[in-house]
């Protein structure tokens, strides 16, 4: 009788998932989907409790069950998740979708104190941990691949040039960076474009690493790393840049962020914000919000306009490079998988699985179009100090690739 | 006594305008501003009635007074308007600004019947009239100037290539165009990119011209010009393109436009909308709305998202080329001034002045940043048929310039 119920429930789940090409099996002999040979992956749920929990809050408990080891996943995890996301999105609003929406993360408190806590939880996991799977320059944002065959490290360097070219950096410009990670973009801009940078970040671990790098590279007279919130940015600058911070700001604070930028940008200044985004407003994945990125929210373009519109900024250029983020994450995941032994030694098995799921899930989200990656270039509304065309972003590709600004002058 | 009042009023106006570098004089000897020699322009108001009317509804009656000849303008009209726009915008919300806002145009009825009437009023003024001051291909939208020194006709051809490259047109694609003007873009795409086009327009005069051109160029088997509203677009297409129509759609109809696009675009299709826009929502200039463009409204990016967001389109690329429109309009005005005799013969003196003011005012609006020009590339949210980078838009500049798709194959 109860086995019949389990089987019925599994069938309902499989249908709600849009009959994906992977196998789902339960304890005992119950299973659904294509045969082992034909399935792209295999989900095995070990006990009824896990199945029921997943039925109540699919997004949260699927992730928790996998990381705790209450269910196992074999085969291609990324493809499994891609099929799952596509399947749920394309079937009409069914019970699974409704449950996911019900339990999605609520908007978070990203006050100065709230942000500090949230950022600490993720970015202060230890530089040694991130070093295991990021590129050599420790860039933890979407890379820019000239071609899909490019390597990660090259693509990260190209991303920094891409950003610098969009901002038309010139020697002597003073740049302010909001959310500078481990400092590579700030150092890159100073080294290759002859600018000075004040770079803000509230992650203590990242700031320490960044300052060390500035000294090592002899750039500590050009780049100042400031351990402080973006809301405390001071001074007037030629350029405002922020790569991968907006996701942690929260829509409620966009208006204030816009005011900060309006205050700190000169009348003929230029700005760029690089952020994960969405096509439609969707609350954060419940599991990601609880276990990986507390306080995060990727906005739609419409939502992001709350930064620009009230302060009369002109949006000059928006580029969506979401497929580049799928590829970046794929390269991170590959490196991560090579170093899971070390991750386990630093944390535990559960952590290893949680971060695997987060990386694979992010790849799938970008590749199916559930997440976007926007680079938005803007300038004060009355400034005519804007580039005539965007050709300079592309024509200078080879010229600036290895050259520093000193060679150019 | 009354002369004192006139003088006091003139001073108040001059202050509210931000003390611009042009001279304003009234009947009698009253005047304000720099001397004749130093002034960039001279506004002369002939009678008290005109002055008072302008004080009540500045935007509407300034335009009406100038076109009727109740005030004269000498000197650089574009610079005069640039200083006026900048002056009003930078002074704190004063009485002049408040009056302008009070009288700004209300949202218009752009139903199928309403649109037909509005479009007829502007675009059916006669092809001979537009031929006097547009380029040889009759493009009545912002051109794309590879450099500011490029000529109008070249820049209009480049605009069409720019649009086609952004859409990655390939031979055999079937394209639907909403609001095709005199048909040049449709014919250009068919000729140079080997696509077939169904092009919609509700301006009868434009459609007649477009059909004639299709026959003359031997492209009537490739391009079909349909005299109908965009809301009646039928079929499934690889590409949706609309250049200079969105301004006439009205924000209230954006949702419906998005539904039309969603219905007519294939799952892996691409789209582009080219439109005048704003940084902040502002109602239409009262005079322009009444005398030049009934029913027009340039939206902000946030407002335009109402087309894309509800239908889960991915915005792939947004480019703002407002300075190109200032230059396009400058070239139109130059040609217009050379042909005012013919314009007067077609219409009258009042019409000549009204259209001069409209062209000069538009130049000023784009050059001071009161108006923007957005090109938005989008695709269905689940489609991965998007370009890897935007390099192809720039690298193919020379290759496609004169070549037709037949040479490429």
Question: Please, could you describe this protein's structure?
Answer:
Chain A is an alpha/beta fold and 409 residues long. Chain A is built from 19 helices and 11 strands. Chain A folds into 2 domains: 2-102, 2-Layer Sandwich (Nonspecific Lipid-transfer Protein, Chain A); 112-404, 3-Layer(aba) Sandwich (Rossmann fold). In chain A, helix 11 (254-264) links the parallel strand 8 (237-243) and strand 9. Mean pLDDT of chain A is 91; it is low at 397-409. Chains A and B meet through helix 13, strand 10 and helix 17 of A and helix 13, strand 10 and helix 17 of B.
List key phrases describing it.
Nonspecific Lipid-transfer Protein, Chain A; 11 strands; elongated; 4-stranded mixed sheet; homodimer; alpha/beta; 17% strand; 409 residues
Summarize the structure.
Chain A starts with a helix and ends with a helix. Helices cover 47% and strands 17% of the residues of chain A. Chain A is elongated and about 75 Å long.
CATH superfamily of the largest domain in chain A: Vaccinia Virus protein VP39
What share of residues are in beta strands of chain A? Answer: 15-25%
Number of helices of chain A: 19
- Greatest chain-chain contact: A-B, 47 and 47 residues
Strand order of the largest sheet of chain A: 7-6-5-8-9-11-10
Which sequence of SSEs, written as H and E, runs from N to C of chain A? HEEEHHEHHHHHEHEHEEHEHHEHHHEHHH
The percent range for helix content of chain A is 40-55%
Cα shape of chain A: elongated
CATH topology of the largest domain in chain A: Rossmann fold
User: How would a textbook summarize the main sheet of chain A?
Assistant: 7 strands, mixed
What is the end-to-end distance of chain A? Answer: 81 Å
Total strands of chain A: the figure is 11
Oligomer: homodimer
The pLDDT mean of chain A sits at 91
* Number of individual domains of chain A: 2
Based on secondary structure, the structural category of chain A is alpha/beta
């Amino acid at each position: 009788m109860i086995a019949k119920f389990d089987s019925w429930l599994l069938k309902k789940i499989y249908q709600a998932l849009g009959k994906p090409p992977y196998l789902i099996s339960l304890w005992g002999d119950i299973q659904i989907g294509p045969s082992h040979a034909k399935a792209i992956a295999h989900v095995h749920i070990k006990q009824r409790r896990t199945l029921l929990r997943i039925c109540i809050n699919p997004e949260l408990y699927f992730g928790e069950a996998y990381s705790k080891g209450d269910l196992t996943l074999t085969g291609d995890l990324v493809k499994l998740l891609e099929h799952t996301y596509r399947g749920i999105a394309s079937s009409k609003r069914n019970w699974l979708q409704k449950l996911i929406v019900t339990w999605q993360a609520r908007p978070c408190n990203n006050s100065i104190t709230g942000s500090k806590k949230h950022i600490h939880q993720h970015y202060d996991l230890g530089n040694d941990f991130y070093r295991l799977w990021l590129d050599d320059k420790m860039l933890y944002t979407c890379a820019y691949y000239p071609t899909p065959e490019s390597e990660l490290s090259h693509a990260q360097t190209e991303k920094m040039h891409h950003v610098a070219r969009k901002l038309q950096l010139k020697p002597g410009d003073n740049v302010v960076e909001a959310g500078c990670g481990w400092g590579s973009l700030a150092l890159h801009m100073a080294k290759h474009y002859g600018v000075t940078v004040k770079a803000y970040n509230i992650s203590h671990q990242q700031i320490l690493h960044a300052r060390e790098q500035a000294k090592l590279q002899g750039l500590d007279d050009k780049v100042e790393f400031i351990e402080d919130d973006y809301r405390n940015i001071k001074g007037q600058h030629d350029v405002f840049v922020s790569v991968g911070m907006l996701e942690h700001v929260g829509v409620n604070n966009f208006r204030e962020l816009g005011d900060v930028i309006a205050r700190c940008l000169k009348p003929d200044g230029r700005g760029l914000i690089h952020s994960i985004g969405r096509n439609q407003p969707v609350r954060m994945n419940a599991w990601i919000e609880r276990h990986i990125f507390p306080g995060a929210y990727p906005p739609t373009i419409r939502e992001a306009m709350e930064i620009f519109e009230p302060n009369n900024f002109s949006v000059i250029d928006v580029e969506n490079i979401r497929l580049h983020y799928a590829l970046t994450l794929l390269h991170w995941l590959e490196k991560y998988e090579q170093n899971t032994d070390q991750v386990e030694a630093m944390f535990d098995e559960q952590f290893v699985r949680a971060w695997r799921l987060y990386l694979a899930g992010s790849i799938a989200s970008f590749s199916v179009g559930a997440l976007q990656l926007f680079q938005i270039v803007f300038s004060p509304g009355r400034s005519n100090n804007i580039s005539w065309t965007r050709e300079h972003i592309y024509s200078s590709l080879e010229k600036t690739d290895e050259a520093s600004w000193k060679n150019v002058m």
